[in-house]
Amino acid sequence: MRKLILRIASLAAIITFVTCALNGISLMTSIFRSAVVYLLTILLAVIMLNILRWGVLATSPPDTLPKKQERKEQTEKKSE
Q1: Contact (CB, 8 A) for 9 and 45
Q2: Are 42 and 7 in contact (CB under 8 A)?
Q3: Which DSSP letter does residue 64 get?
Q4: Chain segment 4-55, per-residue pLDDT in tens
Q5: How far is CA 7 from the centre of its chain?
Q6: CB under 8 A, 24+ apart: contacts of 29-37
Q7: Which residue from 16, 22, 55 is spatially nearest to 39, judged by alpha carbons?
Q8: Max Cα distance, the chain (Å)
Q9: What is the Cα–Cα distance from 23 to 64, expressed in whole angstroms?
Q10: How far apart are CA 54 and CA 52, in angstroms?
Q11: What band does 64 get if pLDDT is binned at 50, 70 and 90?
Q12: Inter-helix orientation angle 27-59/2-22, to 10°
């Protein structure tokens, strides 16, 4: 999933850079705009994945959600 998000962000940044370069915008401005598009695309993907996770948790039946004690035990096992 991480590779897909990074590929989409890279593709959007490359398209932005090429579009800026073809329109005669300076090289530094094109690079800056591409970096902004790259970072904002990644940020948007993180926000959307968190919203999706919250939606899944909100619509799941309560008996399928892990209990606090079980989650605490799982984190303790992972830390050991």
Answers
A1: yes
A2: no
A3: G
A4: 999 999 999 999 999 999 999 999 999 999 999 999 999 999 999 999 988 8
A5: 11
A6: 37/9, 37/12, 37/13
A7: 16
A8: 60
A9: 54
A10: 5
A11: low
A12: 150
